[in-house]
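Subject: Interface between my chains keeps coming out wrong

I've been trying for a while to get a sensible model of this assembly. When I model each chain on its own everything looks fine, but I need the whole thing in one frame so I can look at the contacts. Pasting all components below, labels as-is. Any help appreciated, I'm running out of ideas.
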Amino acid sequence: MDFGRNIRVAALAVAVVAVSAGTALAQKKYDTGASDTEIKVGNIMPYSGPVSAFGVIGKTEAAYFRKVNDEGGINGRKISFISYDDAYSPPKAVEQARKLVESDEVLLIFNSLGTPSNSAIHKYMNEKKVPQLFVASGASKWNDAKNFPWTMGWQPSYQSEAHIYGKYLLKEKPGAKIAVLYQNDDFGKDYLKGLKNALGEKASMIVAEDSYETSEPSIDDHVVRLKESGADVFVSVTTPKFAAQAIKKRAEIDWKPLQIVANVSASVGAVMMPAGFENAQGVLSAAYDKDGADPQWDDDPGMKKFFDFLRKYYPDGNRLDAATAFGYGAAQTLVQVLRQCGDDLTRANVMKQAANLQDFAPDTLLPGITINTSPTDFAPIDQLQLMRFKGQRWELFGDIMSGKAGH
Amino acid sequence: MSAVEDVATEAPAVEAVPKRAMTVGAGTSLVVLGLLVLVPVFAKNFIVFQMTMLLIYGLAVLALNILTGGSGQFSLGQSAFYAIGAYTSAILMEQYNLNYALTLPVAGVICFGAGFLFGQPALRLSGVYLALATFALATAMPQLLKLNFFEKWTGGVQGLVVTKPDAPFGLPLSQDAWLYYFTLVVVVAIYIFSVNLLRSRSGRAFMAIRDNEIAASAMGVDVALYKTLAFGVSAGITGVAGGLGAIAVQFVAPDSYTIQLAISLFLGMVVGGVGWLPGSIVGSAFIIFVPNIAEGISKGLSGAVFGVLLFLVIFLVPHGARQVAIVGQQLLGRLRK
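Reply #2:
Try treating it as a single job with all components included. I did that and got this:
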């Protein structure tokens, strides 16, 4: 009967509506810092102090969230991005983190920069159960889901990167004699550890290691000393200024080992050019994101989006500065996580979704490198590709490699 | 004689402050203390934490004030003593499981020793030369803390994480509030000690040296002893502040104690008024809150804004908070009439 069928259809429709409305209501869940209209995201950056150059990352992120808001926000909610200066001082970072969590009441702290500053707030954030998401530091300790379930890194850890060089050397130059120059801080030491782990039983391949302080005006004498060790591989775990010095000095004293420079110093503009292109030929490194200075990406769709964004939202930002690409990629990853959260904007769900990223590729990552996380894997990017310096730019070669131990 | 030496000997860089003018009246002190006691009742935990840091930096500024305002010696090396104190507390708490309250006297004694020893060679220096020597100490400290040799105690570049103490005897206080009261008691005790020290024979000896070294020695003051003693006391108090700082921040690392900290403390002393002990708290408030204000005005130019604010303070009230307090007192006096 028509009438009966109509009734049944109507009843079903009502039931469906009721159920979906019920789930929709049940799904809208908020913790402090999130509401129907807004998501509060905190951030700590060294806008002043010794590493103020990294402040560009925070400014890029602020600009990116402005763009997201202009385009309607995330599921209708605007991001309000609160970024404070800690001048790279750990006690100040603690003060700012507490201000963000207890006074501004943010949902999470995103991409706070520096190993010392993040170490200082590591315990606090986990005690308070507030996400310390996509930490801007390459220390390996951010990937510890078991003991610190509220903290997650973003970039490949220094150890992962060192692992890749170790694997490459074992395969291509198994009889190499390696000399390592490293910066005497967490960055240098983590790196050295990763390299030794990767070499495993053959760690004796390292015939010389030497460290320098960032306060030294020149590292020339370290390079000379390492040459005397008779090594034929020179691993330079240095920050940009020193990396350029090491390349130049090595060429000057006519030492011709295979030179590897850490990714942090792979910048064409800040390292290779000052070191002299003729001196940098054949230098090896690894990368995970596209270099804005490299013309091969000029027509890349992802980088075009990135350059457009810089023009429109952050005209002061320099595309040659790796920090802008870094901030852009990290901000895109956060937006992806918040999108995945849907209407369940609790801190627990933020961490759950951050640990549930599958093959996500921000515009600025190298083709083939994707972000993957799981409840036990808190290292979003752990792939890199090797590259060799030729002419005036880097040439990528080989497969994309994973830096995970045991792979 | 070079021009610099002329300046150093003829015009004392530190203006003589009579000892009565170094403190405030008992009534005012009690009102301030009362307000400080009430803070945790009304404030959020974050504000309580900030107030704890205010007291801790205030203590460090007070220590410098005893040295500079009291005995007329400069130091840009207070961050080094602060670091030694912080690491002493952190290492004793984390590696030897010592109670946090007991680590403070140890930190104080060790820093007193370090300061006294450093004061020995520093005796030969005065004015800007002494400032430079202490500056060297402050620059060297973060690197010493990174040395491999000390790494098993200091944690090297990674620093040490410190556990925050709970309120004892089941007191219904949050960790922050408890630490605040604990810090307040320590600070008040040291403040009273400092006031009495400066009023005592030793304090008079300090001030005699500050005002005129030759006259002081003619009066029978053992200049060398009292100069090093001032260094020791100042370093010891700074060390206690460092220990408290480590407990409040829950983390120590070489990068926490750079020359920047020493300069901040120096700034705090000048803003608070050199030689005026209560000004230490005002100076401490300046170095904690004004950078935040500057940052609120402009992120990219926070350093420049901070500079302008500092310049305004120095220009308008060159004697710092002491000057403001004196003017305020005079106004009050006029109102009473």
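Reply #3:
Confirming on my end. The longest helix of chain A spans residues 2-27.
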